[in-house]
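Reopening this one. Same input as before:
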Amino acid sequence: MKILSWEELKGEYLKLITDKRRRYLLIAVTVPLLFGFAFLLFHLYEGIEAGRAEIAATKKRIAKYRLIVKERGELDARLVSLNQSLGRAEAMLLTGNTSALAAVDIQNTLNEIALGSGVEIKSMQIPASQKQDSEQYISVPVQFTVSVTIRQLKDILYKIEASPKFFLTVERVGISVAGAGGPGQMRADITVSGIMKNVKE
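Same output, byte for byte:
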């Protein structure tokens, strides 16, 4: 098969154009080819645009996932910090496997406070705690009676509330002058509670 030169190709093309019949044939072949080419270009362009939209959507998803990963890291760090704080707080709770054993810690602390205020505890009782199995922490109450002056009572109440151990709280104070002892003294019935972790007895 002979390969035509540019001049020969040009001459053949001019012959084709001059021949009316061939011209129609050329048009009949060229127009569908041009439409087919345009159709292919249109679909190619459409595919490129769809690809761009998909890339943009993927970039948005990646940015969202990165934000979630970053927030998760921050939440994990906060969880670690909260667990450490909880561990420190639980180290200050009452110890013992039962509320009665835990109440011994409160009694010892109350004896120290009373002695530091120059007061002797006349009686001490351990009322039943309102333990519920569903609660993670329970309150352990201890009731004690002392004969005190107003200044001693104020000192005892302050030391109980300021005590760093067991989260001690004054729940109730009952005051009467009957059976108080000497002049200027009064009888105080005080209920104090501390917190312990709920251990199934």
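So the earlier flakiness isn't reproducible anymore. For the record, The chain has a mean pLDDT of 80.
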